[in-house]
């Protein structure tokens, strides 16, 4: 019979957890920015480029004079970098309900092969801010990449796409793939984005058949932070990037982003001053590594297939074909079952039920603890998110409380703690098998710790549980950190439940701690969370968002002109021009479903869903040509023009955004002479 977990083992488990926290914080700390003239990418050089491109840091949405100026400055930077940039003006309609004229900037650096690796980013900003991180940082990195590769031999052709209209429905990317003569040469795409101004650059989105890109990049990246699970998480969110378009067209692509300090995202505080140079260095290093990795790869014969992968503290990235996942999980279960069979004298039905009960009890009580803290703080403060500017006390309270719950459950199962060290590995491995079949990207979080615990358990179940905890902490803690950054403490309940899962191997290890002292941690954790209320709701770093309403000038409205109606085999064919009488660069078009519209062309580009409201951007003074096929042309069309008014009454530490338009001006295609003959 093996010896039960001792007090020293419990202390070792606590030390393991503390080291895991420290390692996680180290993992998410980007390296120092490199000075101008350094070998490789230099964040300091990129910041200088960004300063010249953004100049006065005016918001520059598509179709505005400020965006025209940004494009001109970018053209100058690319020319001075030794390239021959070309500006491509095209009209495009996105499946996301937007259409408009775009002005993409394209740089081609020919190689000995026709297939091309493309770098993509967008030059336009959201209307509410200058977009230094989203996506100015990527634009500056692109300029530095061009500067380097103009002088560096490369086998594959390189295309740099600085597109326009990403913020308004991915228009620039659609325009490139539908109209640009270089589009057919693109074999793989690297895209850079941002949802914050700080933190490490992480691969968060990939398209199908991009595993070969990931493997090549991992081999060249100094600190490869990537996880196939992040792609699964992103797919559940209602967000789109240009990679969405590359995926629509079946092009392998990888997307990196900065995510910390997301309170600056799409606000007037997304400035160069708030962009962390170390984070810019991390972003640029990833792009640099991808181009170094793929510069000579045969893009025309890239292998197909999907990978499962995860990094261990950015030091190593285990990876395997996705199809192997169920078999690897099954192997882990067989190992844990073999370890259990070896220690079968300690096992029994009671220990099996105890392990399952302890597992689920830890998850449920931890989620309830986090939910109780959140709801209490909301009730006492009267705020939806009283932790907005100071979330650390709540995060610490949730973490300490979850750890205390795990320790108390260990005390409750003390009588079977020896068997629990074996059954916990088997239970975790069995769950991994189920996940490997239905959600394979998640399975490694359970399969790897269980397999390690099983192998080490052959020498000692106690050491096996400790080894499983060490591996689980190394895998779960960085993931929880990234999820908290992405989702915030609004997801506190889910984060606490996930933390309990990551600490499951600690249940038998903490059984020997005095339960009275462990129980005292709960009120301490509660007081820590309650201290959130001592801090102001908002701060200089996390200001309150103030949403401004854009204003339409009175007495102005868009008009339909040069109308022509004729019968055709498909129905009534209505054509003409839609423009703003005051020259507004944005129009909103809504066609009543009673019109029975079958198709709609704007500037000869098909609108993917003419039944939805359509945003048209970059409208020239002469307007937009349209042609529609419909059943009843007498049904009124609704449309509006839109202009932006800068809010001159900015309060300290506030941000200004815009939300829709004030009024909808109704126009009509009737009265029109109706032909006597039916279409």
What features would you describe in this structure?
The chain is an alpha+beta fold. The chain has three domains: 7-26 and 322-534, no CATH class; 31-85 and 114-317, Zn peptidases (Aminopeptidase, 3-Layer(aba) Sandwich), CATH 3.40.630; 548-667, Immunoglobulin-like (Sandwich). It is 43% helix and 18% strand. It has 18 helices and 20 strands. It has helices at 7-27, 43-54, 65-80, 132-149, 171-179, 211-220, 228-235, 242-248, 277-294, 325-342, 349-381, 392-412, 417-438, 440-457, 461-487, 492-502, 506-509, 515-530, and strands spanning 86-94, 98-109, 113-122, 156-163, 186-194, 202-206, 253-258, 307-309, 319-321, 545-548, 558-567, 572-580, 586-591, 599-602, 605-606, 614-617, 624-630, 637-642, 655-658, 665-667. Strands 1, 2, 3, 4, 5, 6, 7, 13, 16, 18 and 20 form an eleven-stranded mixed β-sheet that branches. Strands 11-12-17-14-15 form a five-stranded antiparallel β-sheet, with no helix packed on it. It has a two-stranded antiparallel sheet with strand order 8-9. α2 (43-54) packs across α4 (132-149), α2 (43-54) packs across α9 (277-294) and α12 (392-412) crosses α16. The chain starts with 6 loop residues before the first helix and ends in a 12-residue tail after the last strand. The model is unreliable at 547-556 and 645-679 (pLDDT under 50).
